[in-house]
Amino acid sequence: MEKNKTTKADIYKIDPRNIVVTEGFNSRCNFGDLDELARQIKEQGVLNPITVQSFKDENGEEKYRLIDGERRYRAVMKLISEGTEIARVPALFISKSCSEEELLIQQAMRNEGKNFNEYEWGVLARKLIERCGLTKSEVAKKLGKNPGMVSYWLQLLEMKPEIQALVRDGVVTAVDVRKILQANNKNEEVAYNEIIKAKNKADTRGDKKITLKDLDINSRTIAFKDSKEIKFGLRRLFSYIDKYNNPDGKFEAVIDLRDVLDKLNKDMTITEILDDIKKSAYAKAE
Question: The pTM is what?
Answer without folding.
Answer: 0.59
